[in-house]
Design goal:
The complex is a heterotrimer of chains A (748), B (288) and C (164). Chain A contains 19 helices and 28 strands. Chain A has 748 residues and is an alpha+beta fold. Chain A has three domains: 146 residues, Aldehyde Oxidoreductase, domain 4 (2-Layer Sandwich); 192 residues, Aldehyde Oxidoreductase, domain 4; 218 residues, Aldehyde oxidase/xanthine dehydrogenase, molybdopterin binding domain (Aldehyde Oxidoreductase, domain 4, 2-Layer Sandwich), CATH 3.30.365. In chain A, the strands form seven sheets. Chain A has a seven-stranded mixed β-sheet, sandwiched between helices. A six-stranded mixed β-sheet of chain A has the order 7-15-14-13-8-28. A five-stranded antiparallel β-sheet of chain B has the order 4-5-10-6-7. In chain B, strands 11-12-13-14 form a four-stranded antiparallel β-sheet, with helices on both faces. Chain B has 288 residues and is α+β, with helices and mostly antiparallel strands. Chain B contains eleven helices and 14 strands. Chain C has two domains: 83 residues, Roll (Ubiquitin-like (UB roll)), CATH 3.10.20.30; 66 residues, [2Fe-2S]-binding domain (DNA polymerase, domain 1, Orthogonal Bundle), CATH 1.10.150. Chain C is built from six helices and five strands. Chain C has a five-stranded mixed β-sheet, sandwiched between helices. In chain C, helix 3 crosses helix 6. The longest helix of chain C is centred in the last third of the chain and has 14 residues. The N and C termini of chain C lie far apart (45 Å). The chains are: A alpha+beta (748), B alpha+beta (288), C alpha+beta (164). The interface between A and B is medium-sized, with 33 and 32 residues.
Chain lengths: 748, 288, 164
């Protein structure tokens, strides 16, 4: 027990209770719809019924006391009518041209929310229809030009080596096309905000959100007010998964516009489930085409990949979703020649947006399905083919990033196979399936996921975290990073507690409020632990350093010494504060023009194995067992980390087998929980989670990011298992029983 | 909540007599409101077109499971939970328990009623196929009197029922003649639990000397109403179970049902799965 | 709108052990009345169609979706919400287990999930895995993948001090 002291003081790595756990299990936690204010009005959004057109007239139906309502149109906007994000193309309210069904046109507010609903239905629009386009094929073919000059939001080309020279030398050239569908985030708490806005006091918004400073930026432009006049406060948030990354800017602006028009009366907008599903963002549908050159030894010679995502009607985050999808498209493999052409295109559907994985699940699905096909053509097992091509330390990714950390994909694969008895099952199932109506299969996917913003993103963000200590020694962490269920409050407190070697309970995390916390960047991109956590660590160390430099704290100290030092500091100098700003780790270089270099500071590496049964009576595929093995650096909190993986895998299972957005004229038809099917407790297999820990030098306590990773591997692993079970290759998700039936009956 | 509540009425009559009197006084004016698991969903979505409802949830006359010598009578307000817990139901009418177990989650099973499931008249309802197999009869009561109607004659078209606007469904009667049926129930939904069916298949049969002596096939989600597939039953009666019979029965079933494409599934899928389940039922029947 | 006031009814019931008189439209959802009149905001709305279970409460000991129960139908009933599950500051074994196992992430499904788990253990004190999966199938969670929720139920029923 020589290191007893050490293990006693370290909180990182321990499953401490989550900070807001008690409030959540007792119902005391207050979410946005739980709050109300004196004189509060309710707001509603009147939306377009058509996917594309020009508004001729707005009509208010008879029988309603319209003079009691606050009515806002585009003409009432005090600043610019655009949701400021990356581009400025999306309006808050349609002034003239409608570009997608459910696009907001007019806002209403009233104290009686039931009457408000009646009024919402009584507003109609006389619209001159224009021809819409709904698919990425129609967009690429320029059937109509609906955005810019060519319907293209963004294109990237990645070049490594010279792929044009490999086809002639290849022993095998294998092509394939792969598709993924839209997916609804389906956080259980719908979007909602409360806003108070008037010219004197400025604009204050409370709401369910991931990124308070995104909302802040958008409101600045909408109201043309100075920064200090805009205040955004995150309330307890009931899930996000990317779905509350950009959309809260829209709904916050709407509520604030209504409040502004109502002279500053608070206005609450809460979407019901139907509105949330039909109007807000979903995962980008995608199409990926692969052309792969391999030699007879099963070595990858070249990969040509075309990756296209459907961005919907406005640019929103499509360019960065495309970026992550592009960079992950070639996977954790060492291939000397790679070309990736990627495009995000416009269609007349509500804009697609962020959802856990952010483009990577789409391109990784394609690659990991394709490699099973490649292996088959080459005559190797899927495992052996990958073993011959895995990337190692010192080798380069598709963007030419030299991997500078030890990577052991072979080791992960071996352990994952051991945990699932993969080899034996692979053979046994194949033998036993003949003639059975319940066919079993097992498959896997190997992949990586970069943590933090892509390329120079973190450098541009310049995130800042603050820490302050009071006279009682309590430390408050100041960051805009939000707790949305993933455990931000708890892991930040763990990291700070260890940095300061004081009690975990002495650390608290301030409510994200732009008037009070610095901009630590958005809560996205698997960056909160690795990037912001590192800033938390530095800011906390800054407190200690100040106390030690001023002689108030000795080198070795107890929590009581800490308290005493803080008290003395506050008495002598006032509140103790420290801030830390992001600096890139040494040797990180990214060329945005060539799309080459160090795309991410660090990657998590993983092998996921899925076991399935396919019922030949009903064509239902079911996941029976799932093993998720990943190397993620130091695990800060084993329970929260496993919870992230399990939750992500469950969403991936939904993405693969259940979650189908039914479209009609660019509108989601099944916008109810009854008809948009996410897995229940009866549908999810045992999800067995295992971590390997290879501490990352520039992460807090050695941690890397994990939030998005578990979304990546499920779909290809499951479809690889289904191919093993049925002998039929399926190359799209969601894969519903109806599609299984068609293909299985054709081959039968 | 997308409905404007002041447009609606809900009253709780003191007794069954009061309820019937109110129904008779304003024909078509009032409709029964039981556990609310269907009607409240429509109300919330702003899609509840009828405006005046009588809450019958508290009426004791419509509750309880009574076991008599030749039949079991279920009050129309019998919940799915009660169906699952009753010993006689479990023993003699297992299809109904299986249907109840697969209807919604626990909270829905606690509030959803058999009577509501029948009168809501959804072709995708879970318990009606089982009731059809058991030759259930419905007791319909009005101030004019009581009538007993075979459940098979109740649904006359999509959401159309053989029921007058002053009538109330009070009881469901199950003859105790089916305890020895070999039964088969399979609900194929959009997921394992808390799902609406894409195909619901309930069946029962008796074998005699290697031949099918009695067979009942009932399906949901494959026609405008839940259906008994009498032509396929006719084809199977007195047959031995072999490949030719199974093939003929599959084909007959596929002509007898008329499924559609909707947001949950396709007609093609429903046809194929219904036929597969029939074949599976026959295979199990042969091996028992 | 004057029709609204005339159409309201008074309903007496007991909520978390306290008797109360509710004044509402008879079709008002129990969910709304609990949240808006009694300010018991621990009961959440996730879907408004009885699908997600976030609004689960116990009415006369029976688990229901409060979004599907018109307030008229709880006249005389005893209602228990998430706010009435702990015994003062002493958490219920299920609540304690949810904290310890990581059964709560974003927390929005948690009140309903806790009610469903309490109800399950009241009916089946030693549930099998299948019982747990079935007993919670009416409560959707998007964060956890359910694994840690199953762990919480198992841990809660291992506790000797379990009270239903």
């Amino acid at each position: 027990m020589s290191n007893q002291t050490d293990t006693q003081t370290k909180i990182v790595g321990k499953p401490v209770p989550r900070k807001e756990g008690r409030a959540k299990v007792t119902g005391a936690a207050r979410y946005i719809d739980d709050l109300r204010m004196d004189g509060m009005l309710y707001g509603a959004t009147v939306r377009s019924a058509v996917p594309r057109g020009r508004i001729r007239e707005i009509k208010f139906g008879a029988g309603l006391p319209w003079d009691e309502f606050v009515v806002v149109t585009a003409a009432d906007i005090p600043g610019e009518n655009c949701v400021a994000l990356i581009l400025l193309d999306q309006p808050y309210l349609v002034a003239k041209f409608i570009n997608h069904a459910e696009e907001p046109i007019l806002l209403l507010a009233h104290a009686d929310k039931h009457l408000l609903e009646k009024a919402r239905r009584a507003v109609t629009f006389d619209v001159e229809p224009l021809s819409p386009i709904f698919t990425l094929e129609e967009s690429l073919a320029k059937k109509e030009i609906i955005w810019g000059e060519d319907n293209i939001f963004k294109s990237y080309q990645v070049n490594k080596g010279n792929v044009d020279e490999v086809w002639a030398q290849a022993d095998f050239i294998i092509e394939g096309e792969y598709r993924t569908g839209a997916q609804e985030q389906l956080y259980i708490e719908p979007n909602g905000v409360i806003a108070v806005a008037n010219a004197d006091a400025g604009v204050t918004v409370w709401g369910s959100m991931q990124c308070p400073y995104y909302v802040h930026k958008a409101l600045l432009k909408l109201f043309a007010l100075p920064e200090e006049k805009i205040r955004v406060i995150q309330t307890e948030t009931g899930g996000g998964f990317g779905g509350k990354e950009e959309y809260p800017s829209m709904i916050a602006g709407h509520a604030a516009l209504l409040s502004w028009k109502a002279g500053g009366r608070p206005v609450k907008i809460i979407y019901d489930r139907a509105e949330d599903m039909v109007a807000t963002t979903k995962r980008h549908p995608s199409r990926t085409r692969h052309r792969t050159a391999v030699n007879k030894d099963g070595k990858l010679l070249g990969m040509e990949i075309e990756f296209v995502i459907d961005g919907g009607a406005y640019a929103t985050l499509s360019s960065v979703v495309l970026s992550r999808g592009t960079i992950h498209a070639a996977g954790p493999y060492n291939c000397p020649n790679v070309r990736i052409n990627a495009h995000a295109v416009a269609t007349n559907v509500p804009p697609h947006g962020a959802f856990r994985g952010f483009g990577a699940p789409q391109s990784i699905f394609a690659l990991e399905r394709h490699l099973d096909k490649v292996a088959q053509v080459v005559g190797l097992s899927p495992a052996e083919f990958r073993r011959r091509n895995f990337i190692h330390e010192g080798e380069t990714t598709a963007t030419g990033q030299v991997i500078r950390e030890p990577v052991d994909m072979e080791g992960l694969l071996a352990r994952a196979f051991e945990l699932t008895d993969y080899q034996a099952k692979r053979e046994r199932f194949a033998r036993a399936n003949e003639g059975r109506s319940l066919k079993r299969g097992i498959g896997f996917a190997s992949f990586m996921h970069g943590a933090g913003f892509t390329g120079s993103g973190e450098v541009y963000l310049q995130s800042i975290v603050g820490a302050e200590a009071g006279a009682d020694g309590r430390v408050r962490l100041l960051a805009a990073s939000t707790e949305i269920g993933q455990g931000t409050n708890t892991i930040f407190a763990q990291i700070a507690a260890d940095a300061l070697q004081i009690d975990f309970d002495l650390i608290e995390v301030a409510q994200p409020d732009t008037s009070n916390v610095p901009n630590s960047g958005p809560t996205v991109a698997s960056r909160t632990t690795m990037i912001v956590g590192k800033l938390v660590e530095s800011a906390a160390l800054g407190l200690k350093q100040t106390l030690q430099n001023s002689g108030l704290l000795k080198a070795n100290y107890t929590t009581d010494d800490w308290r005493a030092a803080c008290r003395r500091h506050v008495e002598q100098f006032g509140l103790l504060k420290s801030f830390s700003q992001y600096k890139p780790p040494p040797g990180i270089n990214w060329d945005e023009g060539k799309y080459q270099g160090d795309a991410y500071g660090a990657y998590a590496w993983a092998v996921y194995v899925a076991e399935v049964t396919v019922d030949m009576l009903t064509y239902e595929a079911r996941v029976e067992d799932f093993v998720a093995l990943q190397e993620v650096g130091k695990v800060v909190h084993p329970v929260l980390a496993a919870g992230q993986i399990e939750g992500g895998v469950a969403q991936a299972i939904g993405f693969t087998l259940y979650e189908n957005v039914v479209w009609s004229e660019g509108r989601m038809l099944n916008n109810q929980m009854t008809n948009y099917i996410i897995p229940t407790s009866a549908d999810i297999p045992p999800i067995r989670v295992y971590f390997e820990e290879q501490p990352y030098a520039y992460g807090p306590a050695g941690a890397k990011g994990i939030g998005e990773l578990p979304m990546d591997g499920g779909a290809p692993a499951i479809l690889n298992a289904i191919e093993h079970a049925t002998g039929v290759a399926f190359n799209h998700v969601p894969l519903l029983p109806e599609a299984l039936m068609q293909a299985l009956n054709q081959t039968a | 909540m997308r409905a404007y509540l002041p447009d609606y009425e809900l009253r709780a009559p003191r007794s069954l007599t009061d309820a019937l009197a109110l129904l008779a006084r304003e024909p078509g004016g009032w409709r029964a409101f039981a556990g609310g698991t269907d009607l409240m969903v429509l109300l919330e979505a702003g899609l509840l077109t009828h405006r005046k409802f009588l809450s019958i949830w508290h009426l004791p006359e419509l509750k309880g499971i009574e076991v008599a010598n030749d039949h079991v009578t279920l009050g129309a307000l019998t919940t799915y939970t009660e169906v699952q817990r009753d010993e006689t139901m479990r023993r003699e009418f297992p299809l109904l328990g299986a249907a109840a177990r697969e209807t919604g989650g626990i909270a829905i099973q606690n509030r959803g009623t058999l009577g509501g499931n029948i009168v809501n008249a959804s072709p995708a309802a879970d318990s009606p196929p089982a009731l059809l197999v058991y030759d259930a009869e419905l007791e319909l009561v009005s101030t004019r009197g009581t009538r007993l109607l075979p459940y098979r004659e109740f649904h006359t078209g999509y959401k159309q029922m053989n029921m007058q606007s002053d009538e109330l469904l009070t009881r469901i009667r199950l003859p105790r003649t089916t305890g020895d049926l070999k039964t088969y129930y399979r609900k194929v939904g959009t997921r394992k639990a808390q799902a609406i069916s894409k195909v619901c298949f309930a069946a029962g049969a008796r074998m005699n000397d290697g031949r099918i002596a009695d067979v009942r096939l009932a399906l949901g989600s494959v026609a405008p109403t839940v259906v008994r597939c009498t032509q396929t039953e006719e084809l199977l009666r007195n047959q031995t179970i072999d490949e030719a019979t199974t093939k003929a029965a599959r084909e007959m079933l596929m002509t007898e049902i008329t499924p559609i494409d909707d947001m949950r599934s396709t007609a093609d899928y429903r046809l194929n799965v219904a036929a597969n389940l029939l074949a599976d039922f026959l295979r199990q029947l042969k091996h028992t | 709108m004057s029709t609204e006031t005339t159409s309201k009814v008074n309903v007496t019931c007991t909520v978390n052990g306290q008797s109360c008189m509710l004044t509402a439209h008879p079709l008002a959802r129990l969910l709304d009345v609990l949240r808006e009149q009694l300010r018991l905001t621990g009961t959440k709305e996730g879907c408004g169609e009885g699908e997600c279970g976030a609004c689960s409460v116990l009415v006369d000991g029976v688990l229901v979706n409060s979004c599907l129960v018109p307030v008229l139908q709880v006249a005389g009933a005893e209602i228990k919400t998430i706010e009435g599950i702990a015994d003062g500051v002493q958490l219920h074994a299920v609540q304690q287990a949810f904290i310890e196992t990581g059964g709560a992430q974003c927390g929005i499904c948690t009140p309903g999930m806790v009610l469903a788990a309490v109800n399950l253990l009241a009916q089946t004190p030693q549930p099998t895995e299948a019982d747990i999966r079935n007993g919670l199938a009416g409560n959707l969670c998007r964060c956890t993948g359910y694994m840690k929720i199953f762990d919480a139920v198992v841990r809660a029923c291992q506790r000797a001090d379990i009270k239903s």
